[in-house]
Amino acid sequence: MNKEKKINLSQDFRDKIDPKSQFVKKNIPGVSKIVAIASAKGGVGKSTICANISVASAKRGLKIGLLDADIYGPSIPDLFNITIKPTADEKNKINPIEAQGVKLMSMGFLIDKNTPMIWRGPMVINAIKSFVNNVNWGELDCLFVDLPPGTGDAILTFAQELDVNSSVIITTPQKLSITDANRGIEMFKKTNIPVLGIIENMSYFLDKNNEKNFPFGKDGVEKLSEEQNIEIIEKIAIDESFDQCSEKGIVFEDLSIDIKEKFIKISEKIFN
Ligand code: ADP
Description:
By secondary structure, the protein is of the alpha/beta class.
């Protein structure tokens, strides 16, 4: 005889143990769309690309915000060379810091640069929620979200709670990065967030004869694009002008012409 007792869960209880059933995806008032920039793997240039897409979009006259959701390893303060702290208004809402025409918010603005974040998941989620709800984003054409690497808590919070319109995946041509990018795409599929496309970063470098060299491999991203049926939005070269920017903060004008044009094109694709 089957001794297992079937338990009928009340809807109320089911909602408590299965948070999915009570998710109502929220918009941020005043923000027309939210685009997540993700890589699944660290060190592929995701924050650099996200920052430059944001700046390129602002240069095109759009109202742009950039939320650095990487609570454990925020890079946006360094990328924009910001050393000041944000202020709060009379309602205790944080005013984002503006640089290069982009409204910025990052955990890095609030903590000392050398302080390691040793928060557990729920605290990270609360920090992200407060960056969404307690920041004066104002009217924005787009809020770009620089997601942390991986497929963990922070990303799920965004995916499940916010009405994220689309995502862009950043990967290098290296196998390990592509495997993780694939994981990232699968995660967005599961959370019903459309993937607009893939940006291949550090794709090649131009030698002194202007020939392309492919130190990290050549066809991996094409294969991923075919298998997932997702377009490659752009291929960004290894370019030393990024390094200058990371030294003194992004100055879009200081990027090489080719790279600047590519970021403008990427922005046009995201907003067309
Ligand atoms: P992630 O956000 O993926 O961890 P970052 O954006 O912090 O990566 O970039 C890591 C480093 O790589 C930075 O020093 C950045 O300047 C550099 N970098 C990123 N993309 C390029 C590129 N296309 N060419 C040269 N350096 C790059």
